Amino acid sequence: MMICPFCGKEMQKGILSGDGRSGVSWKQGERKAGLLDRIVGEGKVTAAKGSLVAFTIESYFCPGCRKMIFDTDITK
Ligand SMILES: [Zn+2]
User: Fold this and answer.
1) Quick one: CA dihedral 14, 16, 18, 22, positive or negative?
2) What is the pLDDT of residues 14-59, one digit of tens each?
3) Domain-located, residue 56
4) CA of 32 to the centre of ligand 1 (A)
5) How many angstroms separate the alpha carbon of residue 68 from the centre of ligand 1?
6) For residue 57, is it within any domain?
7) Global pTM value
8) How far apart are CA 45 and CA 16, in angstroms?
9) Which of 4, 26, 45, 64 has the most beta carbons within 10 angstroms of its beta carbon?
């Protein structure tokens, strides 16, 4: 469980994903957003700009303050 460092509420664990064609989506749980989610337009991440190659990132979303957190490292 992840607590939002901004508002103190529980965050939702999910998968941030994109395939380079239909923008960036986020879906709660262990699976990335599927074709049906994209058809109904659910889970679009409005902060994503431009086109990206395919990716998935495990991340936490706070619906209260609309922030996302994920673990990463920066390769050198
Ligand atoms: Zn929050």
Assistant:
1) positive
2) 999 998 777 899 999 999 999 889 888 899 999 888 777 899 999 9
3) yes
4) 22
5) 9
6) yes
7) 0.85
8) 8
9) 26
- For 39, counting Cβ atoms within 10 Å of its Cβ (0-12 exposed, 13-18 middle, 19+ buried), the class is exposed
Q: Is residue 7 part of a domain?
A: no
Distance of CA 23 from the midpoint of ligand 1 (Å):
24
Smallest Cα–Cα separation from 59: which of 3, 5, 12? 12
3-state secondary structure of 29: coil
Number of domains in the chain: 1
How many CB atoms sit inside 10 A of residue 67's CB? Answer: 15
In a domain, 63, yes or no: yes
Give just the sign of the alpha carbon dihedral 25, 74, 65, 58: positive
